Amino acid sequence: MAPISQKEVSVGNRDASTARYLLKFESFSVLSTNGINKYESSVFESCGYKWKLIIYPDGDVEDGYDHISVYLAIAETSSLQAGWEVNATFSFLIFDQIHDKYIVMRGMAQRFHNIKTEWGFSKCISHETFKEPSNGYLVNDKCVFGVDVSVIKNQGLGECVSLLNETKSYKHEWKISGFSKLKDKLYSEEFLVGVYKWKLLFYTTGNADQRNNSISIYLVSVDAGSFDRQKRVKAKFSISVKDQISGARNKRGDSSHWFLAAEVDWGWAAFMPLHEFKNPKKGYLVEDCCIVEADVSIIGAVNSLT
User: Fold this and answer.
1) How distant, in Å, are the alpha carbons of 38, 48, 186, 214, 235 from that of 45?
2) Which Pfam families did the record assign (predicted)?
3) Segment holding 130, helix H or strand E
């Protein structure tokens, strides 16, 4: 019977990030004799994760008849973050005691997660091949199984898009007193919409090309400055200045915008002409006080896909 593979794996040609774990049996046949149908190794570590090597000497109960079944299982997952997943490449080995070398039986790359915590082969090696004396796998009832494990990191960039059909809006009122004594640029207090923090930005004499012509008002995402490249949040919002005489509002049309690290604010440079805003008959600025109202809802988010 020919060996299962002619690929030899030595310590010298393995990647430095690969962990090898070996499992030596002094009396392999005694496992079955003593009713040990499944043997789990001690926990070992590779790339910061804990693993176990699992051997079924007579095959697992489902599909391993007349074979040895071998599996790799991720262990101690309770310490991992919710929604964890680990991508790993691994190869199962057996030691050729005649030629003093490890032979790859089978290998694969798989994704371990909370629903699927172990991967392997129910028919990893047949009893006939394993017991063939010329192969050197079982000598004087002694054998050595092993596994090489490495965790795959940085598999590429991606993003996960979440959009909402129905959104709950949040209304925030900002009362600005002593308007004539304020600086040209001021921020409101922070307010929360969903899990995201926001504030309003007000330019009392206008921003950019609207300076000394209009008041400028923007919605600002407090969180966006720390977003990674894939992270974005889409908000639907309206901003208005209250007419304190009639109770009416100078309301802009509803707007929506994707807020990201490179664009943390969005709004109107020419929100309202200064002469209109300061006209006492309009009721926007009364006793040196104005009231700004914002209506904000979250309609989508994009996160990194890892």
Assistant:
1) 21, 6, 53, 63, 44
2) MATH_2
3) helix 127-131
pLDDT score, position 154: 57
Nearest partner of 260 among 229, 292, 289, judged by Cα: 229
Asked whether 234 and 300 are in contact (CB, 8 A), the reply is: yes
- All domains of the chain in start order, with CATH: 10-151 (2.60.210.10), 159-305 (2.60.210.10)
Chain CA centroid to CA 257, Å? 24
Q: Is the pLDDT of residue 131 over 50?
A: yes
298, exposed or middle or buried, with CB in 10 Å at 0-12, 13-18, 19+?
A: buried
CB 173 within 8 A of CB 291: yes
| CA–CA dist 142, 131 (Å, integer) | 11
pLDDT at residue 1 is higher than 50 = no
Higher pLDDT, 199 or 159: 199
pLDDT tens by residue, 159-184: 888 888 767 899 999 999 999 999 99
Write the burial class of residue 194 (CB in 10 Å: 0-12 exposed, 13-18 middle, 19+ buried). Answer: middle
Single-letter amino acid code for the residue at 237: F
Would you state the pLDDT for residue 11? 35
Using DSSP's 3-state secondary structure scheme, residue 198 falls into strand
Give the C-alpha distances (Å, rounded to integers) separating 36 from 25, 31, 33, 39, 195: 13, 5, 8, 7, 52
User: Hey, what amino acid is at 277?
Assistant: F
Q: What is the pLDDT of residues 62-75, one digit of tens each?
A: 778 899 999 999 99
